[in-house]
Write a structure and sequence with these properties.
The chain is α+β, with helices and mostly antiparallel strands. It is built from twelve helices and 29 strands. The two termini are about 40 Å apart. The model has no long low-confidence stretch (mean pLDDT about 95).
Length: about 625
């Protein structure tokens, strides 16, 4: 199978770059129509286009609303389309200009945050103006985020649109905190690679044709799936600006091997995705202004862009890269991927030297992250199976928070390592022997990826668990079966220092729900143990209660607020299923199974996700 690595290079002539008026204004009263600002912005756009073309790369030019009022910007786009095959597309970023502010009387500039009425009016304005200038409608559009209602409206009204920049990976509380608590755009929990969004929720991929929104979505920037998850996303992506912002370069030589390593790690993802890998760069001119940005002078900003493009150009010359426009990519993606085919990424640390490894899995039913530094624990889980409708913007319950809710999230809800009492969210297992207990979260390991038919398998290196007078060698295998909306975890005792010994294993999942660090009201949650005929139930009231049942076929939690049913199940007849309610200081719930295991025995459990009726 031939590996195919595709890049989308997207430039936008932002006449009023997001940050530039504040930077270039030098204390003058704000004036977004200033000639110097518009001229410099257009010059940077021209420079970016020239650098791409010099390296034999075609681009997608996403015209902003402001640029549609500028004759020179329009002529530049037409000329580069004719000469280089660049696509002329339309961005819903770059709305602010004198014409826009006069009409809408607001300084808001994020399309998804407007009221639905205004979204429609703005879309019709911008698409209409585009048609006036070019004589056709665009096939591609985008923003940092586009909500489902917005995409559905665009697709209905402008059916030729087939591709859109639709979310920014892990741009939530972490980004908010590193922007001095001032960047009110929360959009955690979406895919990191292209996907076909459902009509109900942009983050959640469509499971079938009825759910298909009709577009192919791409992420805003290709992020480092480990550094960005552990830290601030804005610092770790294949946009050279991110790398400079993170200071992960040599300040003396102006070299940034990290940038090339990051692009290469994206190329490597072809191994896990049937020979296909993707990368993108989506840039406006704001970060390359003459005054410099992020402690970096203009000369370094320019050099980093030239070097990044030269690397893509070199890969293309070597036959290792295909540059596509957004519309071309949408056609390729539709032909290459099926709706239920997952996106997989076995990702390693390439920045800090930690050897840490994460595995990311995304399909129409879930997004999950497995952490090998925690013995293969699941540390992030988004229940896409619920296809949660989550209207966003003014006039909805979620003016600024477009994130897809989690059940497990170690950064916002503690994970295994907690400060004091209580538990954090994680899916792991504990082994007990003669009163001693060890959690697999404490057992670092490495993973190996394989695929059998429609099942993706993660095989972890065995770990040695040492009790006072017993050593157990245990191996974990994790199975993601395409289209099943479950994750199977299989533990095998490979050997014991005392072959006659018996250990207890406790497979557990501690979970909650939310989109930020702050706890949500848990009182509508119901916990149930069932064996198919009998069941025991706890209605959540923060009372620390527990129930258990031998031979339970399933232990279940139903969370009405996010329309999600999550359960663990097992087929071992003598296993004991249990449910636990949390308390106010530890507002979680726990689902689990305990059983005894001897040498060479195997215990399998399934984590199942479904929409709650």
């Amino acid at each position: 199978m031939e590996n195919k690595f595709i890049v989308n290079i997207i430039h936008r002539p932002e006449m009023v770059p997001e940050y530039a008026e504040k930077v270039t204004g030098h204390g003058k009263e704000e004036d977004i129509g200033r000639k110097a600002l518009l001229t410099e912005s257009l010059d940077i756009f021209k420079t970016q286009q020239e650098i791409a073309h010099k390296n034999g790369l075609k681009t997608t030019i996403q015209m902003t609303y402001a640029s549609l009022f500028n004759d020179e910007a329009v002529e530049l786009a037409k000329a580069d389309h004719d000469k280089y095959g660049d696509e002329i597309a339309l961005s819903l970023l770059g709305l602010p200009c004198e014409e826009f502010r006069a009409k809408y009387k607001t300084k808001d500039f994020c399309i998804w945050m407007f009221s639905m009425e205004d979204k429609k009016a703005i879309v019709d304005d911008v698409f209409g103006k585009f048609h006036d200038r070019f004589g056709f409608y665009p096939e591609s559009t985008g923003s940092y985020y586009m909500d489902a209602d917005l995409i559905n409206y665009i697709k209905e009204k402008y059916p030729m649109v087939k591709c859109a920049v639709a979310t920014c990976w892990e741009e939530g509380p972490k980004a908010y905190h590193t922007c001095n608590n001032s960047w009110y755009t929360f959009m955690d929990g979406g895919p990191w690679a292209p996907w076909i969004p459902s009509k109900q929720n942009v983050h959640a991929p469509a499971a079938n044709e009825a759910e298909d929104s009709g577009i192919v979505a791409i992420p805003h920037l290709s992020r480092d799936l480990l550094a960005c998850y552990d830290g601030n996303g804005s610092n770790f992506g294949t946009h050279p600006q991110n790398v400079l912002r993170s200071m992960s370069y040599d300040t003396k030589t102006w070299e940034y091997p990290y940038l090339y390593n990051l692009i290469d790690q994206y190329r490597d993802l072809a191994k896990y995705n049937n020979g296909y890998a993707y990368n993108m760069m989506f840039v406006g001119p704001g970060w390359m202004n003459k005054m410099g940005r992020w402690e970096a002078p203009y000369e370094l900003l320019l050099k980093s862009y030239e070097d990044g493009m030269a690397y893509y150009g070199k890969l293309k010359k070597e036959g290792k890269l295909d540059d596509m426009t957004m519309a071309e990519f949408a056609d390729y993606y539709r032909q290459k991927k099926t709706l239920t085919e997952p996106e997989c990424a076995l990702w390693r640390d390439i920045l800090y030297g930690s050897e840490k490894q994460l595995f990311w899995y995304c399909d129409p039913f879930m997004r999950a992250c497995v952490n090998m530094d925690q013995g293969g624990a699941i540390v992030d889980l988004r229940p896409y199976a619920a296809k949660l409708e989550w209207p966003v913007g003014i006039g909805t319950k979620h003016v600024t928070d477009a994130s897809y809710p989690f059940l497990i999230q170690e950064k916002y809800r503690a994970g295994y390592f907690t400060h004091y009492a209580g538990e954090g969210t994680v899916r792991s297992a504990k082994l007990s022997y003669k009163g001693e207990e060890v959690d697999l979260c404490l057992c670092r390991t490495k993973a190996h990826f394989s695929q059998e038919g429609k099942t993706r398998i993660l095989t972890l290196d065995p770990v040695d668990i040492e009790f006072y007078d017993l050593t157990v060698k245990l191996q974990t295998k994790i199975y993601f079966e395409e289209g099943s909306s479950n994750i199977k975890m299989e533990r095998t005792i490979l050997e014991m220092s005392d072959p006659t010994a018996e250990v207890e294993i406790n497979e557990y999942m501690v979970a909650c729900y939310g989109t930020t660090e702050y706890s949500e009201d848990m009182t509508n949650i119901t916990l149930t143990c069932t064996n198919g005929t009998d069941s025991k139930e706890i209605k959540y009231a923060y009372k620390c209660r527990e129930e258990q049942m031998e031979g339970a076929t399933e232990v279940i939690s139903v969370i009405p607020e996010i329309e999600t049913r999550v359960s663990l199940s097992c087929e071992k007849k003598d296993a004991v299923g249990y449910i636990k309610e949390g308390y106010a200081f530890s507002p979680m719930f726990t689902l689990g199974y305990t059983t005894k295991l001897k040498d060479k025995e195997v215990f399998a459990t399934w984590l199942n996700l479904a929409k709650a009726n």
